[in-house]
Amino acid sequence: MSFAFGIGIGTQNRQGHWLEVYYQQPVMTPDNALMEVVQNALDYKGGNQAISASAEQLSQLAHALRQIGQAEQARLAEAAETSKRPVVVTILETDDTASSTPEVYLKLHLISHRMTKPHALKLDGIFGLLPNLAWTSEGAIDLGELPDRQLQARVEGHTLEIKSVDKFPQMTDYVVPSGVRIADTARVRLGAYVGEGTTVMHEGFINFNAGTEGTSMIEGRISAGVMIGKGSDLGGGCSTMGTLSGGGNIIIAVGENCLIGANAGIGIPLGDRCKVEAGLYITAGTKVALLDDNNKLVEVIKARDLANQPDLLFRRNSQTGAVECKTNKSAIELNEELHANN
Prior knowledge:
By secondary structure, the chain is α/β, with parallel strands linked by helices. 17% of the residues lie in helices and 27% in strands. Strands 17-20-22-26-27-24-25 form a seven-stranded mixed sheet, with no helix packed on it. Strands 1, 2, 3, 4 and 5 form a five-stranded antiparallel sheet that branches. Strands 12-15-18-21-23 form a five-stranded parallel sheet, with no helix packed on it.
C-alpha cells in the first residue's frame, strides 16, 4: 500500500519548473485498487513520482476510477482534464525525503487537511524545493518573470497586487479546515494544522508543521514544529520558540488547558494546565526559583528541568526580578464563549 496520492493543478514558470501545486482532495494511504488504476493509466512504475499528466491520460484515469467506485477522485481527474494550467499526479510510495516541489506540496496539504499531525512526516530538505515566489492576486509568479507581469497588468488597465514574497503560501488559498476562525489568513502558512474549534486572531501566527489540537484562542506566535494542546490559549504577542533558527533539538509543545500570557514566551515544552505570566520569557537555561506552598525557596534549577511537568505557574517576582515557579493546582477556566466557532 502506498503512502499518499494526489491529483494536482499547479503553476510552472517559463522554463517548465513547478512553482506550486493545489491538491483539492489528497488521499492518505490509497488502497491497492486505486494504485493499480494509476499504474495502468499513467505508466507508473513505483517509487515517489510527480507525473505530468496529459488530457488523454486524465480521461483514461477518470474512466478507470469510476469503474472502481472512486467517484470523487474521478471527478477531480475530469475537472483536471480541461485545466488551462498544468496537471500533476503525485504518488508517494513511502514517506521518504521529497525530491520535487509537487511532493512537498502534497505533504503540506496532508497536514493542513488534518490527515496527519505535525512531526509525522519527513520534511527535511523542503526549503531547497520550495522556490521563493511572488504571491499575487493572479497567483504564484516566478520572481524573474514578475516585472513583465507587472507591466502587462498595467498595460491591461489593472494593478497586480503582490501579497507576499515567500516560499510558503497562505494556507487558506489551498485548504480551509472546518470549524475554525482565522482573522488574518495571511498569518497561517500552508502546512499548518489548525484543529477544529481554533480561533486565530489578527496577531496570531501559525507556521508550517505546527498548529493546534483545537478549542484554542491564538493571539501569539506558533513557530515551526510547535503543537498546542486542546483548550490552551496564547495571549497577544506571545511566542513559542521553534527549533529552525537556533539549531536546537528540543521539541517545543504546549499541553492542554495552558495559558501563555501576553508578550510572554517559552523555550521549553509545557505540560498540562500550566501558566506563564504576561511578559515573562522562559528559555531552557533560565534560572527558576522553586517555591513551596508557603512561598519559601526550595531550590534554584534551570527551566529545562521542569519541561513537560503539569500544573506549574511561572511568574517574575516584581521586587527581586527573580523567575519563580509554583505548583498551580487551580484549574484554568477558559472563556467558552471565545472558543465557540460555529
